[in-house]
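Entry for the shared binder. Reason: the reviewer on the internal report wants the predicted structure included alongside the sequence.
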Amino acid sequence: MLKQVNNVFKFRLYLLFNLPIGWLVGLKIVSLTDQKCTTSVPFKWLNKNPFKSVYFAVQSMAAELSTAAACMVAVKGHRPSIAVIIVDMTAKFHKKATDKVFFTCEECEKAFETVALASHDKEAQTVTLKTIGKMSDGTLVSEFDFTWSFKQRTS
């Protein structure tokens, strides 16, 4: 699964067929490991707001993807399967995003630990993953916390 997500062509096809708005705005996974995921979203005409910065909803998509990618990899292949859904999100916006924004989640291992708990415990388990958005020059533009819920489906 990591290989597929890290393959640019396969990921772009995935976006086109499963998340077309992500494909349209130019979401990318820069890198994904068991510990860390970095995504990016460009600053372009389609993504900007009237204030000439990256629209908050576009930032939210890229931020979510930096946590969701780890969650998708963590639940892949479990039998019975594990349901995953966002149950909460908070955001802080620090500066205008006037360039390409990179979102980095360095807590990906928490998703794997929580999936393991959900598969053994049979109860819904939640985890909050933080991601930080910075422009190419290192300027902090936003921070997001996504709370994910994992629950093993009944056979």
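Summary line for the report: Helices lie at 2-6, 8-18, 20-25, 56-75, 108-121.
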